[in-house]
Design goal:
Blueprint lengths: L5 H26 L4 H27 L10 H16 L3 H24 L6 H20 L8
Helix pairs in contact: 1-2, 1-3, 1-4, 2-5, 3-4, 4-5
Amino acid sequence: MAAYTEEVGKKLNALLEKNYDGEKGYHKAAENTDHVGLKTYFGRKAQERKSFGHDLKSEIRTFGEDVDKGGSFTGAAHRTWMDVKALFSADDAESMLEEAIRGEKAAVEEYNDVLQETSLPSSTKSILLSQKNQIESDLSQVKSLENLK
């Protein structure tokens, strides 16, 4: 079985880190809201990102790459920003949702970037497309949560 190019390995590990960050961020968002619908949504998204991470780790290992552990500094800064917004915002549920939507849009862009790699094995491409499509689907459905007032 062939290994990924060094560039693809780095991009997949970066995507894995983003999923770790997303999982932690969604857990944090669920802690910062009393809105039942959002708490449920954020909890589901945290579990989804955990599952995405496991799938990516398994795929990365299948192709002989080392798996990076932990999360990124950017992700930790984003979670801190969500905490600050929750403390000082008059409508913290809406601001948490806005941050989540912003993060999901960024995730779609990151998936698109990796999917442009021409040396992706078909199994990796299939996993990435499935995960990206799930994020896009959730983004289109999240509109129902935007009217929280």
